[in-house]
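RECORD TYPE: inverse folding
INPUT: structure tokens
STRUCTURE:
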């Protein structure tokens, strides 16, 4: 089924294939993720019932501060290999 609207491929050409629609999904920004959880997220039947689903109630200044703090974090990322030993 053709796309109901034209999309742009990674090379900038207009196409309407299902693959182009699937690969052109919008990637959320860090601020967008914070705002999503600030609104309380979405209902999810797989979410742990002990996890609260209430809006965080952050002000714009608090959102700005949280995003700035998260953006300041640095590191190598997570280790993708299992540790060779564990603390006893």
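DESIGNED SEQUENCE:
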């Amino acid at each position: 089924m053709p796309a109901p609207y034209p999309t742009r491929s990674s090379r900038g050409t207009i196409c309407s294939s299902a693959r182009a629609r699937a690969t052109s999904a919008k990637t959320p920004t860090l601020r967008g993720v914070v705002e999503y959880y600030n609104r309380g997220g979405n209902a999810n039947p797989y979410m742990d019932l002990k996890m609260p689903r209430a809006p965080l109630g952050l002000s714009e200044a608090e959102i700005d501060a949280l995003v700035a703090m998260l953006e300041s974090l640095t590191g190598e990322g997570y280790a993708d290999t299992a540790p060779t030993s564990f603390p006893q």
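NOTES: The two ends are 58 Å apart (CA to CA).
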